[in-house]
Design brief:
Helix content: 25-40%
Shape: globular
CATH superfamily of the largest domain: Cytochrome c-like domain
Structural class: mainly alpha
Number of helices: 16
Number of strands: 4
Number of domains: 2
CATH architecture of the largest domain: Orthogonal Bundle
Length: 368
């Protein structure tokens, strides 16, 4: 029986989603034959951590100062919604690391959604978007909330007409893309550039790694717990967080079932793939700036970091797709003491990037 169960778990944990050809010919044909960029546009350079890998930015939509500025103006423009009341920033407030303090978002018509607004930081390193991963690029992602009847509830035809009626936008589109004609594709490209430019690598944690700051004793204890296995047999009593939230991005796994429920009302990734092994799996978010992105989980069920940690200590529920790194633990989760729980919270607060939470205004962006 154990061998059968192990085989089922392995089959449910792995799949081939795409096969990529990395030959030179394939590289030339991978969306690089259609580039929209103004002749005098200025390249935009991301400032990233020395410990982070180089992001695979879209080759057919190179980041420019003008494109990012245009995307920033669009991001804060309420005209992207049908009744002109809701912008992208309504649900993705930059001062909360592009999230909002509600369990689920409400759309332009006041209708509640079903999921918590995700942070938009460091998306340049991701290759799937939304909690269920249904979009393969930021460009594909940004147009979906606009058209969703529960969210911004606007058609792309109406959106283009409204933006085109504003003469100021014609100059901005010309600065970014050349011809001043405004299209839904150019709107998506500009928003993609703005979102991809939102990088966060200036927290206390980063300064500690660079040797310009030091952890407190409690923060250092939390850092050790975060990056240590819980394996009593070998004398290790960590919190085991790094399996899903490891590395400089604090996001080392794409999707996981983290034991929120034993039966699922929201099937998560399964709704996209139809694979039984994906039931109850959701995107694993980065923990950067996590102290300011409450409430937590795909449905916003936890109000505080303390509640999140308590879930992993006493509240985890078993199911067929529970992540193996969690399923190996005792019922309920990793049994940490109160002092260790507090230390984990203290460490997670060192991931807050204060400079990132104080973005330039859309007006300043648009003048670049």
């Amino acid at each position: 029986m154990l061998a059968v169960k192990l085989r089922e778990n392995i089959e449910n944990s792995f799949s081939v989603e795409t096969v990529k050809d990395f030959s030179p010919i394939a590289e030339l044909s991978r969306g690089t034959n259609h580039i929209e960029i103004a002749p005098n546009a200025t390249p935009y350079h991301l400032t990233i951590s020395q410990f982070a890998p180089q992001p695979d930015l879209p080759r057919d939509n190179p980041l420019t100062v003008e494109g990012v500025a245009l995307g920033g103006k669009l991001f804060f423009d309420g005209r992207l919604s049908a009744n002109n009341s809701e912008s992208c920033a309504t649900c993705h407030n930059p001062r909360r690391a592009f999230t909002q303090p509600q369990r689920v978002s409400r759309g332009a018509d006041g209708d509640p959604g079903t999921r918590n607004a995700m942070s938009l930081e460091n998306l340049a390193w991701k290759d799937s978007f939304f909690w269920d991963g249904r979009a393969a690029s930021v460009r594909a992602q940004v147009l979906q909330p606009i058209q969703n009847p529960i969210e911004m509830h606007e058609s792309l035809t109406n959106l283009v007409a409204k933006i085109s009626a504003d003469k100021n936008y014609h100059r901005l589109f010309a600065n970014a893309f050349g011809p001043p004609e405004i299209t839904a594709d150019k709107i998506a490209r500009a928003l993609e550039q703005f979102v991809l430019a939102q990088v966060s690598f200036n927290s206390k944690f980063d300064r500690v790694m660079n040797g310009t700051a030091k952890f407190t004793k409690e923060e250092a204890r939390g850092y050790i717990l975060f990056n240590t296995e819980y394996d009593p047999y070998h004398g290790q009593f960590g919190a085991d967080c790094f399996h899903c939230h490891g590395g400089p991005l604090f996001q080392s796994q794409d999707f996981a079932n983290n034991g929120l429920d034993s039966a699922f009302t929201d099937l998560g990734r399964y709704a996209i793939t139809k694979r039984a092994g994906d039931k109850g799996k959701f995107a694993v978010p980065s923990l950067r700036n996590v102290a300011v992105t409450a409430p937590y989980m795909h449905d916003g069920r936890f109000k505080t970091l303390g509640e999140v940690i308590e879930h992993y200590c006493t509240g985890m529920k078993r199911s067929a797709t529970l992540d193996p790194n969690l399923a190996k633990h005792p019922d309920g989760g990793v049994p940490l003491g109160d002092a260790d729980k507090k230390a984990l919270v203290a460490f997670l607060k060192t991931l807050t990037d204060e400079k990132f939470l104080q973005p330039k205004t859309p007006a300043v962006l648009a003048q670049k």
